[in-house]
Design goal:
With 135 residues, the protein is an alpha+beta fold. The protein has one helix and six strands; from the N terminus they run E-E-E-E-E-E-H.
């Protein structure tokens, strides 16, 4: 194999690989909503890229091929369910998300745990002081 380049179809080892994912994904684990023709499903947005997302629905998995809208914070993306198995599903977006939205959501996720913890503490404090009936 002297003189032959590495990789498929004559590409060199330094070329960008052409796999299922050409965009980097960010891990999030944020609450989100998946809007389908059959209804709205609360879910966890597990990871996100400019071209798609991995989602963990709270209820049933959507059908592969179903059109959907993913909503999480300031991000809203239209797409199609590409796979659904083992309690997770993958959504491929109709149009690429701007990188700024992906990065912004990653920054939001970094602060989400601390913000949620503070919110729960404040709600518990209000309940103990008799200022709230809802915990």
């Amino acid at each position: 194999m002297i003189g032959k380049p590495f990789g498929r179809s004559g590409t060199s080892a330094s070329a960008v690989p052409q796999g299922r994912r050409s965009d980097a994904r960010v891990r999030l684990h944020l609450p989100a909503r998946l809007i389908l023709l059959t209804g709205t499903e609360h879910c966890i947005l597990e990871d996100l890229s400019a071209t798609g997302a991995a989602i963990i629905p709270e209820e049933a998995l959507p059908q592969v091929g179903a059109s959907a809208i993913l909503q999480c914070e300031h991000v809203e993306a239209f797409g199609v369910v590409r796979w659904a198995r083992y309690g997770r599903c993958g959504l491929m977006f109709d149009e690429k998300l701007p990188l700024s939205q992906v990065v912004s959501l990653r920054h939001f996720a970094d602060n989400f745990a601390a913000t949620e913890r503070e919110r729960h503490i404040e709600r518990a404090r209000a309940w103990v002081m008799g200022k709230s009936r809802i915990v």
